[in-house]
Specification:
Elements: E1 14-15, E2 20-21, E3 24-25, E4 32-33, H1 41-57, H2 68-97, H3 101-116, H4 118-129
Antiparallel strand pairs: 1-4, 2-3
The structure holds flavin-adenine dinucleotide.
Length: 130
């Protein structure tokens, strides 16, 4: 039984200004929130965890796990993936939010063009799968 009224929350693009501080590393939605239209938010967070694990595994013996220089490697390593995915999901969200039939026609043409290009489709799927 629902004991509170239903609530609505706007879906927004959010990104922490910094992912790391000494002894702190943000992963997943704590670091970045993307629009769920592409169903990629959790995948993105899992890739953060994999990368943080890789950075920790490659740690020099003289550094502590909380060393800011070490944690910055994680932050830098995640930049490209995050930028491309946020640009893609936010771009799609804006494109599909445009009102009017001309926008709809352009959208449909674009989606059909991508759908008919096997190579582009495979590249997009490969990237989404990580
Ligand atoms: C409608 C919708 C559909 C989605 N569909 C997909 C999809 O198809 N594929 C996909 O990959 N991703 C999808 N996502 C995104 C995905 O759900 C999130 O990216 C993912 O759940 C983030 O995981 P997380 O562990 O980082 O954060 P969360 O799942 O938000 O977990 C954070 C946890 O911390 C708890 N918490 C918060 N503050 C505190 C505190 N102060 N003390 C203790 N606990 C606290 C919260 O209660 C929560 O349990 C979707 C998101 C939405 C909104």
């Amino acid at each position: 039984r629902c004991i509170t009224p239903a609530q609505g929350f706007p879906l927004v693009l959010q990104r922490a200004e910094q992912f790391v501080q000494p002894h702190v590393a943000l992963v997943g939605d704590a670091a970045h929130v993307v629009h769920p239209l592409a169903g990629q938010g959790m995948n993105l967070g899992l890739r953060d965890v994999v990368e943080l694990g890789r950075v920790m595994a490659d740690k020099e013996s003289f550094r502590s796990e909380g060393d800011l220089r070490l944690l910055r490697r994680y932050e830098r390593a995640r930049a490209t993936d995050l930028l491309s995915l946020t640009a893609a999901t936010d771009g799609l969200h804006r494109l599909f939010s445009l009102p009017g039939s001309p926008a709809r026609v352009v959208r449909n043409l674009g989606m059909r063009a991508v759908g008919s290009q096997g190579l582009i489709k495979r590249l997009l799927i490969g990237h989404a799968l990580g």
